[in-house]
Write a structure and sequence with these properties.
With 206 residues, the chain is of the alpha/beta class. The protein is 50% helix and 13% strand. It has two domains: 10-134, Rossmann fold; 145-200, Arc Repressor Mutant, subunit A (Orthogonal Bundle), CATH 1.10.10.10. The strands form two sheets. It has a five-stranded parallel β-sheet, sandwiched between helices. Helix 4 (91-99) packs across helix 8 (171-185) and helix 6 crosses helix 8 (171-185). One of its GO terms (molecular function) is DNA binding. It comes from Bradyrhizobium huanghuaihaiense.
Length: 206
């Protein structure tokens, strides 16, 4: 990190590819973050108990062991946003990551500056007073703040890609949130979901 810049906080990183790890470290340090890289989830969890990171960038291996790291971070009240990356991403994996506390799910290969931008956006959202708000669909499990935001955009007719651009998320992450919303609402698809919403009142009340 340049010596004349104040640190914006620590970013914990698990990334097995050495070249990607180095590029991420350089880009994050240039953006005034301190970067701490870990070889595995156990060492990251141990360090997270002693110090609170501003953000966690967590690679999802084929065995999905990163899901357990996600669960443990939330169980231990680590409120830092967690961005999950994967070279073998799928909608099902994105949904699982989000259910277990991930803020964003990003498929590889990715552009380093995009990751820095997503980290900035995730940290900014956590810092906003309304970031932890919840919203309700009548008779359904409450939606998280991000699910509510995605729902409002869906109700406005935006596509997944348009929502992703507006919310500074990956399209795969938006797909994951959409799937979670549909499951909570018991809706078959987005059309069915919106029919229920408009039948019950304005989306602004969601």
């Amino acid at each position: 990190m340049p010596g004349n810049m104040l640190s914006k906080g620590e970013v914990f990183v698990i990334e097995t590819d050495a070249a990607s790890r180095e590029q991420l470290s350089i880009a994050l340090q240039q953006s005034a973050y301190d970067v701490i890289c870990f070889a595995d989830g156990a060492s990251l969890l141990s360090e997270a108990k002693a110090r609170m990171p501003a953000c966690v960038l967590l690679e999802m291996p084929p065995d999905r062991s990163a899901l357990e790291v996600l669960k443990r971070l939330r169980e231990e009240n680590c409120m830092a946003p967690v961005l999950v990356t994967s070279a073998n991403g799928s909608i099902a994996m994105a949904v699982d990551a989000i259910k277990n506390g991930a803020t964003d799910f990003i498929e590889k290969p990715f552009r380093t500056h995009d990751i820095v931008g997503r980290i900035d956006a995730a940290i900014d959202e956590v810092a906003q007073p309304g970031a932890s708000r919840q919203r309700w669909l009548p008779g359904c499990e409450p939606l998280t703040g991000r699910e509510g935001d995605v729902l409002e955009h869906l109700a406005a007719g935006l596509t997944n890609k348009e929502i992703a651009r507006r919310m500074h998320l990956s399209a795969r992450t938006v797909e994951g949130y959409r799937a979670s919303i549909l499951k909570k609402a018991g809706a078959k698809n987005v059309t069915d979901l919106l029919r229920r919403i408009f039948g019950q009142g304005s989306p602004a009340q969601v």
